[in-house]
Amino acid sequence: MGHTILEKIIALQKKTSNIRNLCILAHVDHGKTTLADCLVANNGIISSRLAGKLRYLDSREDEQIRGITMKSSGISLHYTTGGNEYLINLIDSPGHVDFSSEVSTAVRLCDGAIVVVDAVEGVCPQTQVVLRQAWLENIRPVLVINKIDRLIVELKLTSQEAFTHLQKILEQVNAVTGALFTSKVLEERAEKDADATSSCTENSSGDQVYDWSAGLEETDDSDLYFSPDQGNVVFASAIDGWGFRIHQFAEMYSQKMGIRSSVLLKTLWGDFYINAKVKKIMKGAQAKGKKPLFVQLVLDNIWNLYDAVVTRRDKEKVEKMVTSLGLKVMSRDLRHSDPRVLLSAICSQWLPVSQAVLSMVCEKLPSPAEIVAERVEKLMSVGARRFDSLPEKTQELKKAFLDCSADEMAPVIVFVSKMFAVDSKALPQNKKRPLTQEEIAQRRELARQRHGERQAANQSTETSGSVDAGGTSILAAPATSSVTDALCAQTEALSVKTAVEEEGKEQFVAFARVYSGVIRKGQKVFVLGPKFDPSLALRMLSGGCSATDALPTIPHMACCTVDSLYLLMGRELEELDEVPSGNVLGIGGMEEFILKSATISTSLACPPFTPLNFEATPIVRVAVEPKHPSEMPKLVRGMRLLNQADPCAEVLIQETGEHVLVTAGEMHLQRCLDDLRERFAKIEISASKPIIPFRETVVRPPTLDMVNEELGKQQKVAVIHQVKEEQTKYPEGVQVDSTGLVMLTTSNKMATVGVRAIPLPEDATRLLEDNVELIRTMVQLSLFAWEGKTLDINQKILENIQDFKVKLESHLQGHKWRGAVERIWAFGPRRCGPNILLNNIEGYQRPSVWQCLKCVKEKEKAEATTLRDFDNSIVSGFQLATLSGPMCEEPLMGVCFSVETWDMKLSTPPAQQDSVDENSVSQCAETSNDNQSLSSELQDVHETDMSTTGSNRSRSRVEAMGSSVDCYGPYSGQLIASVKEACRYAFQAKPQRLMAAMYTCEIMATADVLGRMYGVLSKREGRVLHEEMKEGTDMFIIKAVLPVAESFGFADEIRKRTSGLACPQLVFSHWEVISSDPFWVPTTEEEYLHFGEKADSANQALKYMNAVRKRKGLYVEEKIVEHAEKQRTLGKNK
Ligand SMILES: Nc1nc2c(ncn2[C@@H]2O[C@H](COP(=O)(O)OP(=O)(O)OP(=O)(O)O)[C@@H](O)[C@H]2O)c(=O)[nH]1
Ligand SMILES: [Mg+2]
């Protein structure tokens, strides 16, 4: 990078109002990186001829090979418009769903976004996702409709058709924005109403009529939508290098036609036409069958150019056009065999896309100084905490955010959104740089000196050789010099070796942005982890302190010195000494302190930023191991590095000792494995087949049998092995009645529990699943209330809990569920899962899970005394039972366990029994192999709390128990085990089903490959939800669901079968019950006749279940060879 450009950028970094931080967002393959190329070429970093072909920001080899972006990367550009110089920090992001976490990391650092939409494909699933992400982060978007050349060359639309098509796309994009806006306004309004009703007295009658649209009308949304006349839409073809806003044409034609440009601007995009006779612009082009202005003045020109250059290759016409436009085209381009070369040579001069996009960005996107208060509050308030409940000093920092000042006194606030690995060779300090004139002169001088010395030494040896006797002292000199030479050589060799080792090492650079103050090299700063609590820190350190002071250890906080600062220049980094507020930057030497994201500040009052919104759920897991077992440590280290370098990948070690990698999808998995092999571990590794998660559940007894006959009327046939199984299913001491109630007594015969499993309605399960975070908060609140602490809790969260309760009640209707919601004992597994433990014990009134609502409101302490002893053992048993079910040890889902009896003989056990049990369960949960991450902050708080109080209590308990420890072990332990077993048997007493994780996929394909695509879908048990034709194109959009278990290789197969025309995007959507019964054997006469005794037609659920059991080393009932003689007969007959 040129020295002058670097200096210019450094100077511009200080002018906050002239900085634009933005990212490019779009669906996969809509042309983000190509567009970025055009912008980069404008700065002369790459040649404009290569723009669009090089994909400069796709710096990884696999990105280039696959033609897809996998990591977001930043580059700083400078741009001059209207006499103002701007610094543009551009971040290119990936569009593939598997890498959507990279988008989240990019969006957080920006103030604006360029949303790119393919003119042919229109709004795609990821387009909606990125628009929502931008919305959630309060960043302003502008629109680029790209690939308009495809409308001309591929779809062969006329300019008029293209106009209609473009209008439709714009409508689609605005519809998405509109929906986001409406929901926000309504939410705010509801909030306001809630505030109003809570503040006013309760005298209002309940029959208010809500006018929901009122809020919408009041709120100004005019600058929210994309509209060409607002100047926030660019029409472009990045590959051909052209793009424009209608401003440009309005100005051009206002001179030509003598119409004011403001009038033209208003009418150029719309249903207006020009009346040539009266030279006036009139409305109603469509009704009168006239050419709209946009077609006549804009599109027709472009269409003509393409026609002349690409379609007809009319040289004369092209030359005429070129001269009339006043352009200069090199004759080399004119003669080129590929017409696209000539085209881009003309277009990039006539309507350079970089000018159009960059001027729009500078005009329409906010500078870092314009950050709004709403966004600041959102960034600063983590989880359930309200902004106004933060410590006063912390709230004061809001001003620093809003000022965005680069003042000496301003506190430094930096957010690191991800860590990325770079080869240490690529770091500027390790790079060989050209020497300056003085350095060259210095070296020359040094070499001359050395040469002189050597010559002198040679001469002296020669003379000493000629002098005989007594010359030992002189002779000794060369000997010593040779020794030192050897030493020098050795040390040199050593240093070379370390340099080589260094070279291969990956270094981490933090991808960050400065929100306030100036960060300097060598400065001491605090690194605040995502769980850091400023109020705790402020309490611990009264008064001011800085990172240079010696500090006591504060949880989730570290002090460090800023090692190096970098300017991100795509593939390269440039070293900087300081970076002022408002800029995106790279920070080196932080790998010891930051895992994935962090906040850096000089003030301990600074709160950690809210966690990033990740759209993707990591679901694909594989076990990895080194090819050579001795290389295990390298793998472990490599996996640690990978975990740090990827925002979304999870790395864990299961209790079986397996190293498991969890990724968002197949493509992501591939990239992680490649990274592990080539960068982080540098060893050969083998990965298992993807481990597919399942869930276990129970359903209502089916009313139809497998041949669709009604059950119950037929005469049953006794299938021998089933009867046998029925008998052996339950061991001694377990009683199961015909309704599925399981009674089980502990080994010491002291307690008996009766449990029944009931399937939860589907809606209720979904509700539980969607509200995991809320349930977790509830658990934490109960815990706080339990300990007598009060927490300043957001009113909104309380409302959400109330709302959740009401919804749950509405889903649990019918006499079976009467009053059930009030009697919920716990949720599980992990206290927040989609299963319910119900207290149906007569005469046992325990506080419900909803007590937090009451406690927080009334600020009263929960009554602890009403809990029966060992209450928690029951909960723990339930947690364990729901964590792994009896079918294949996968977690349960949608099951309600109703405890109906609980008799205990022990009369006076110590009061504080339960906490130890709970502790043991939380540990179990941590090591288990479920795929839900445990990383939530609340959960952690909960666990640490439990472990500290638990250990204290356990000691006292052991002392107090003494006598009650019988030969079967502690009483509470027995109860846990019994409840767990009882739940399992109760589960087995009902019709059991497996649940499969499902992907939704949206595939776009042309009519001729539709049939083949359906073939692939049905082979993989996919189900088409709907199919529609995309207007104006010959494309169909098919929405389908597909089990995750069948998805591996799906994208590839579709691509191959449709010759690359269809490319599906798989997104995890939900869990679905597999309708077939894995334990099914024919029981009715019809089934028997239809399927035969063996029932060998494939049972999908059984297949899945056995595969999981096999993987986990569980017993699988499978006959390897059945009827061996038959096979022999077959062989003979051949
Ligand atoms: N016809 C046409 N093709 C384009 C245009 N812009 C990009 N492409 C092509 O579209 C393909 C995808 O372009 P990329 O720039 O890699 O797309 P992307 O949005 O960065 O893709 P991901 O990063 O993988 O999400 C490439 O083959 C480009 O050549 C355009 O304006 N017209
Ligand atoms: Mg890309």
Could you characterize the architecture of this molecule?
Helix 9 (246-257) crosses helix 10, helix 26 packs across helix 28 (851-858) and helix 26 (772-786) crosses helix 31. This protein has 37 helices and 34 strands. The strands form 7 sheets. The protein has an 8-stranded antiparallel beta sheet with strand order 14-13-19-10-11-18-15-16. Strands 2-3-1-4-5-6-7 form a 7-stranded mixed beta sheet, sandwiched between helices. Strands 25-26-27-30-29-28 form a 6-stranded mixed beta sheet. The protein has 1134 residues and is α+β, with helices and mostly antiparallel strands. The model is unreliable at 200-212, 465-484, 486-503, 714-724, 859-865 and 907-964 (pLDDT under 50). It starts with a helix and ends with a helix. The protein is globular and about 100 Å long. It binds guanosine-5'-triphosphate and magnesium ion. Magnesium ion binds at residues 32-33, 58, 69, 92.
How are the SSEs ordered, and which strands pair?
Blueprint: H1 3-12, E1 19-26, H2 32-41, H3 61-66, E2 73-81, E3 84-92, H4 100-108, E4 112-118, H5 125-136, E5 140-146, H6 148-153, H7 159-199, H8 214-218, E6 233-237, E7 242-244, H9 246-257, H10 261-268, E8 272-275, E9 280-283, H11 285-288, H12 293-311, H13 315-325, H14 331-335, H15 339-350, H16 353-364, H17 373-380, H18 392-403, E10 413-423, H19 437-466, H20 472-504, E11 506-516, E12 518-520, E13 524-528, H21 534-540, E14 557-561, E15 564-569, E16 572-576, E17 578-580, E18 584-588, E19 598-601, E20 620-626, H22 632-645, E21 650-653, E22 659-663, H23 666-680, E23 685-687, E24 694-698, H24 720-729, E25 734-736, E26 742-745, E27 751-759, H25 762-770, H26 772-786, H27 795-811, E28 824-828, E29 835-839, H28 851-858, H29 871-883, E30 895-904, H30 914-927, H31 937-961, H32 971-988, E31 992-1006, H33 1007-1019, E32 1023-1029, E33 1035-1043, H34 1050-1057, E34 1065-1073, H35 1085-1091, H36 1100-1111, H37 1124-1133
Parallel strand pairs: 1-3, 1-4, 4-5, 5-6, 29-30
Antiparallel strand pairs: 2-3, 6-7, 8-9, 10-11, 10-19, 11-18, 12-17, 13-14, 13-19, 15-16, 15-18, 20-22, 20-23, 21-22, 24-31, 25-26, 26-27, 27-30, 28-29, 31-33, 31-34, 32-33
Helix pairs in contact: 2-16, 5-7, 7-12, 9-10, 12-15, 22-23, 25-27, 26-28, 26-31, 29-30, 29-32, 30-31, 33-34
